[in-house]
Amino acid sequence: MMKLLEKLAGERAALPPKFTGKAILMAGLGGMIAISIAALMSARLDQLLVLGSFGASCVILFAYPDAPFAQPRNVIGGHFLSSLIGLLVVSQLGVAWWALGLAVGLAIAGMMFTRTVHPPAGSNPVIVWLVASQGAFSWQFLWFPTLFGAIIITIVALIYNNLTREGKYPKYWL
């Protein structure tokens, strides 16, 4: 028990460096633009293209664009795979509490196995489960909003990050 308490105290490492005011402004603006474009396209196409997890994706895409989790392969692949797993689990096992846990665990393992880890995508099976629990299960969720929404925010990140930053984005594709 004492060893656990010692571990819970943490390593007492220093906080990460502060973001500059410019970096804060530019990341916030990038996220605003990405979600606004996805929402506008949703309205114009009369097709849902926004997920709650995309807000968290924007944090990674615009505040940490050099991180592995921010690369297009991870954003698009992670969202797609996690929603697919959520849909498969719900379609086969229903909306039981344990099925939700299984779906999230399988999504994490699947993203790790395919090297498409994108932490916000871990919430997609939860979103699928919540929608299905309201009687609105649909395989279309995999395409709209998941895949096309993830592609939209990634395209915005590609353009925005390369126009506003010194570094290149992405670091890798496949």
TrEMBL record:
Residues 17-170 form the HPP transmembrane region domain. It comes from the Bacteria. InterPro entries: HPP, TM_HPP. Pfam families: TM_HPP. The chain crosses the membrane at residues 20-41, 48-64, 84-109, 121-137, 143-163. This is HPP family protein. It comes from Methylophilus aquaticus. Keywords: Membrane, Transmembrane, Transmembrane helix. The keyword Transmembrane helix applies. PANTHER family: TRANSMEMBRANE PROTEIN DDB_G0269096-RELATED. The keyword Ribosomal protein does not apply.
